[in-house]
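Chapter summary example.
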Amino acid sequence: MTAPQPPALSAAARLEGRYGLVAEDFALTPTDYAQRVALWEAMAAEQASATPEQRQAHVQVLALTAVIMAQTRRADKFRAEGDITTERDILGRVAIFQGWLAVAEGLAGLAPPAAAPGPRRANPSPVIDPWGLR
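The structure predicted for these 134 residues follows.
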């Protein structure tokens, strides 16, 4: 006897479960948010060579990028109003989202390699000008 398979999660449910992202985070109505999630899924499906897991991660990348932009716009509004404390709180959340974004980019295969290939060497005889290194 085999165990029953768990139900497949929608992309919106996956985003809410993993990151707590809901329509309000994007300043969208639930209908607009559902359309936006469908757009992200369609964009991720354009990668023909990607695995299903990479496509899910690509949806997460698109959602996290969008929420970072939405939160940055909110922070800009509070900065313009002079509410620096709220702006700092929002930017703290943006830093958390950016950490999640880096992980999702790696899972989706969208991140550049961590280090450039080949050996690196420092310049043994740098030219130092009054304004800095050349």
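To summarize the output: The longest strand covers residues 128-129.
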